[in-house]
Write a structure and sequence with these properties.
Number of strands: 0
Helix content: over 70%
Radius of gyration: 16 Å
Number of helices: 5
Structural class: mainly alpha
Order of helices and strands: HHHHH
């Protein structure tokens, strides 16, 4: 099987997991919904498309760390919203670290490809 097809199937599996998790959590959320939980699937969808730029396995590991960190941020923010609590200050750390991993890994991949 082509490596791109395998990668696509992995990201589709992550999308399916996030959609199922958010659907079940929203079902038991007492009628409350959170856009962070509803659109958490967008993170692995966009990351799956961006992963086609990355051919180096070491760079892809950091890219996946960033993806999982952003998924954790989105889901945790949704959980706190549904629970009616204020989002703790440490959630911004998830956003900064996840975005940093994604941006740095994509930029390293682009520099490596064109150098």
């Amino acid at each position: 099987m082509n490596k791109y097809v395998k990668r696509l199937l992995k990201y589709l599996g992550v999308v399916a997991f996030v959609v199922i998790f958010s659907t079940v959590y929203n079902h038991y959320g007492r009628g409350m919904r959170s856009p962070f939980m509803d659109y958490a699937f967008a993170v692995p969808t966009v990351c799956g498309a961006l992963s086609l730029l990355i051919n180096n396995d070491k760079i892809r590991v950091f890219f996946n760390y960033g993806m999982w960190t952003l998924i954790a941020y989105s889901i945790m923010r949704g959980v706190f919203t549904i629970a009616g609590a204020d989002s703790p200050d440490y959630l911004i750390v998830f956003l900064i670290i996840g975005t940093g991993f994604i941006i740095s890994s994509v930029s390293f991949a682009i520099v490596r490809r064109f150098s």
